[in-house]
Amino acid sequence: MGQVFYWMNTSIDGYIADSDGDMAFMDPPEDFRQEANDHVRRTGAFLFGRRLYEAMEQPWTQDLGGDGASAVEREFAELYRKTPRYVFSDTLQTVRDGVTIVRREDAASVVTRLKREIDGPLQLGGPELAVSLLDLVDEFWMYAFPVMVGGGRPYLPVRENLRLRLAEHRSLASGVTFRRYVRP
To answer: Going by C-beta distance under 8 Å and a sequence separation of 6 or more, which residues neighbour residue 144?
Structure first.
Protein backbone atom coordinates (compact mmCIF):
# COMPACT_ATOMS: atom_id res chain seq x y z
CA MET A 1 0.00 0.00 0.00
CA GLY A 2 1.26 3.44 -0.89
CA GLN A 3 1.86 6.33 1.46
CA VAL A 4 1.46 10.02 0.68
CA PHE A 5 4.53 12.13 1.39
CA TYR A 6 4.09 15.91 1.17
CA TRP A 7 7.46 17.24 0.05
CA MET A 8 8.34 20.86 -0.64
CA ASN A 9 11.68 22.63 -0.43
CA THR A 10 11.77 25.73 1.77
CA SER A 11 13.83 28.53 3.19
CA ILE A 12 14.76 27.95 6.84
CA ASP A 13 11.96 30.33 7.80
CA GLY A 14 9.42 28.06 6.09
CA TYR A 15 8.66 29.58 2.68
CA ILE A 16 8.53 27.76 -0.65
CA ALA A 17 8.68 31.05 -2.58
CA ASP A 18 9.60 34.58 -1.55
CA SER A 19 7.14 37.49 -1.47
CA ASP A 20 7.65 38.02 -5.23
CA GLY A 21 6.86 34.35 -5.95
CA ASP A 22 10.50 33.63 -6.77
CA MET A 23 12.13 30.31 -5.78
CA ALA A 24 15.66 31.16 -7.01
CA PHE A 25 16.91 31.19 -3.41
CA MET A 26 16.73 27.39 -3.53
CA ASP A 27 19.41 26.84 -6.17
CA PRO A 28 20.05 23.16 -5.41
CA PRO A 29 23.59 22.08 -4.57
CA GLU A 30 24.91 18.77 -5.93
CA ASP A 31 24.43 16.81 -2.69
CA PHE A 32 20.75 17.81 -2.61
CA ARG A 33 20.30 16.87 -6.28
CA GLN A 34 21.72 13.40 -5.63
CA GLU A 35 19.48 12.95 -2.59
CA ALA A 36 16.45 14.04 -4.63
CA ASN A 37 17.32 11.42 -7.27
CA ASP A 38 17.50 8.75 -4.57
CA HIS A 39 13.99 9.70 -3.38
CA VAL A 40 12.52 9.92 -6.88
CA ARG A 41 13.97 6.51 -7.78
CA ARG A 42 11.63 4.99 -5.15
CA THR A 43 8.61 7.21 -5.91
CA GLY A 44 5.50 5.43 -7.21
CA ALA A 45 3.81 8.59 -8.54
CA PHE A 46 3.92 12.37 -8.37
CA LEU A 47 0.77 14.19 -7.23
CA PHE A 48 1.06 17.88 -8.16
CA GLY A 49 -1.02 20.99 -7.84
CA ARG A 50 -1.20 22.93 -11.12
CA ARG A 51 1.46 25.54 -10.29
CA LEU A 52 4.03 22.99 -9.18
CA TYR A 53 3.24 20.80 -12.20
CA GLU A 54 3.87 23.75 -14.51
CA ALA A 55 7.13 24.59 -12.73
CA MET A 56 8.39 20.99 -12.90
CA GLU A 57 7.11 19.74 -16.23
CA GLN A 58 8.88 22.01 -18.71
CA PRO A 59 12.45 21.80 -17.42
CA TRP A 60 12.39 18.07 -16.70
CA THR A 61 10.72 16.84 -19.89
CA GLN A 62 13.02 18.63 -22.32
CA ASP A 63 16.19 17.06 -23.71
CA LEU A 64 18.98 17.87 -21.26
CA GLY A 65 21.73 16.24 -23.30
CA GLY A 66 23.33 19.30 -24.87
CA ASP A 67 22.66 22.19 -22.52
CA GLY A 68 25.46 21.59 -20.02
CA ALA A 69 23.28 19.72 -17.56
CA SER A 70 25.14 17.55 -15.08
CA ALA A 71 24.82 13.77 -15.02
CA VAL A 72 22.74 14.07 -11.83
CA GLU A 73 20.32 16.49 -13.54
CA ARG A 74 20.00 14.23 -16.59
CA GLU A 75 19.32 11.27 -14.28
CA PHE A 76 16.60 13.24 -12.46
CA ALA A 77 14.95 14.14 -15.77
CA GLU A 78 14.95 10.48 -16.83
CA LEU A 79 13.49 9.35 -13.50
CA TYR A 80 10.92 12.16 -13.59
CA ARG A 81 9.69 11.25 -17.07
CA LYS A 82 9.36 7.55 -16.14
CA THR A 83 7.29 8.25 -13.02
CA PRO A 84 3.49 8.54 -13.42
CA ARG A 85 2.37 12.11 -12.79
CA TYR A 86 -1.06 13.33 -11.68
CA VAL A 87 -1.92 17.02 -11.80
CA PHE A 88 -4.88 18.24 -9.76
CA SER A 89 -6.48 21.11 -11.64
CA ASP A 90 -9.85 22.38 -12.76
CA THR A 91 -8.32 24.69 -15.37
CA LEU A 92 -5.89 22.53 -17.38
CA GLN A 93 -7.41 20.94 -20.46
CA THR A 94 -4.38 19.13 -21.90
CA VAL A 95 -1.19 17.68 -20.46
CA ARG A 96 1.85 15.80 -21.75
CA ASP A 97 1.96 12.05 -22.20
CA GLY A 98 2.48 10.27 -18.87
CA VAL A 99 0.38 12.84 -16.99
CA THR A 100 -3.20 12.41 -15.79
CA ILE A 101 -5.47 15.36 -14.99
CA VAL A 102 -7.54 14.96 -11.82
CA ARG A 103 -10.33 17.43 -11.13
CA ARG A 104 -10.37 18.84 -7.58
CA GLU A 105 -13.78 17.29 -6.78
CA ASP A 106 -12.26 13.85 -7.46
CA ALA A 107 -8.97 14.47 -5.62
CA ALA A 108 -9.64 12.59 -2.38
CA SER A 109 -11.13 9.54 -4.07
CA VAL A 110 -8.30 9.34 -6.62
CA VAL A 111 -5.59 9.65 -3.95
CA THR A 112 -7.35 7.02 -1.80
CA ARG A 113 -7.42 4.69 -4.81
CA LEU A 114 -3.75 5.36 -5.64
CA LYS A 115 -2.76 4.59 -2.05
CA ARG A 116 -4.38 1.15 -2.50
CA GLU A 117 -3.00 0.47 -5.98
CA ILE A 118 0.57 1.83 -5.94
CA ASP A 119 3.34 0.45 -3.79
CA GLY A 120 5.82 3.04 -2.69
CA PRO A 121 5.71 6.72 -1.94
CA LEU A 122 3.18 8.99 -3.58
CA GLN A 123 5.01 12.29 -3.62
CA LEU A 124 2.55 15.15 -3.10
CA GLY A 125 3.60 18.67 -3.97
CA GLY A 126 1.82 22.00 -3.77
CA PRO A 127 0.70 23.61 -0.52
CA GLU A 128 -2.94 24.25 -1.44
CA LEU A 129 -3.35 20.70 -2.73
CA ALA A 130 -1.72 19.34 0.44
CA VAL A 131 -4.09 21.30 2.65
CA SER A 132 -7.08 20.00 0.67
CA LEU A 133 -5.85 16.41 1.13
CA LEU A 134 -4.43 16.83 4.64
CA ASP A 135 -6.23 13.80 6.09
CA LEU A 136 -4.58 11.56 3.45
CA VAL A 137 -1.01 12.78 4.03
CA ASP A 138 1.09 10.22 5.93
CA GLU A 139 4.39 12.10 6.17
CA PHE A 140 5.65 15.66 5.78
CA TRP A 141 9.06 16.10 4.18
CA MET A 142 10.96 19.36 4.18
CA TYR A 143 14.33 20.21 2.71
CA ALA A 144 15.29 23.60 4.18
CA PHE A 145 17.86 25.62 2.27
CA PRO A 146 20.19 27.81 4.38
CA VAL A 147 18.53 31.13 3.59
CA MET A 148 15.81 33.29 5.15
CA VAL A 149 13.43 35.17 2.84
CA GLY A 150 11.22 36.89 5.42
CA GLY A 151 7.86 36.13 3.82
CA GLY A 152 6.12 34.64 0.83
CA ARG A 153 4.25 31.38 0.17
CA PRO A 154 4.38 29.15 3.26
CA TYR A 155 5.25 25.46 3.24
CA LEU A 156 1.78 24.44 4.43
CA PRO A 157 -0.91 27.07 5.06
CA VAL A 158 -2.91 25.13 7.66
CA ARG A 159 -5.64 26.94 9.51
CA GLU A 160 -5.39 24.94 12.74
CA ASN A 161 -2.74 23.20 14.84
CA LEU A 162 -1.35 20.08 13.26
CA ARG A 163 0.64 18.03 15.76
CA LEU A 164 3.50 16.04 14.24
CA ARG A 165 6.40 13.95 15.50
CA LEU A 166 9.91 14.37 14.11
CA ALA A 167 10.90 10.99 12.64
CA GLU A 168 14.15 11.96 10.91
CA HIS A 169 16.51 14.92 10.76
CA ARG A 170 19.71 15.14 8.74
CA SER A 171 22.07 17.79 7.43
CA LEU A 172 23.75 17.65 4.05
CA ALA A 173 27.31 18.92 3.58
CA SER A 174 25.93 21.93 1.68
CA GLY A 175 23.94 23.08 4.73
CA VAL A 176 20.56 21.93 3.42
CA THR A 177 18.66 20.12 6.17
CA PHE A 178 16.09 17.36 5.78
CA ARG A 179 13.25 16.87 8.25
CA ARG A 180 10.63 14.15 8.07
CA TYR A 181 7.56 14.37 10.27
CA VAL A 182 4.82 11.81 10.91
CA ARG A 183 1.54 11.99 12.72
CA PRO A 184 1.84 10.92 16.40
So the answer is: 9, 10, 11, 12, 14, 176, 177, 178, 179
pLDDT tens digits, residue range 110-153?
Answer: 999 999 999 889 999 999 999 999 999 999 999 999 999 999 99
pTM of full prediction above 0.90 = yes
DSSP track, the chain: --EEEEEEEEETTSEEEETTS--GGG---HHHHHHHHHHHHH-SEEEEEHHHHHHHHHHHHS--TTTT--HHHHHHHHHHHHS-EEEE-SS-----TTEEEE-GGGHHHHHHHHHHH--SEEEEE-HHHHHHTGGG--EEEEEEES---SSEEES---SS----EEEEEEE-TTS-EEEEEE--
Domains, the chain: 3-182 (3.40.430.10)
Q: Of 113, 103, 156, 116, which is closest to residue 134 (Cα–Cα)? A: 156
Q: Give the model confidence (pLDDT) of 39-92 as tens digits.
A: 999 999 999 999 999 988 877 777 665 567 888 988 998 899 999 999 999 999
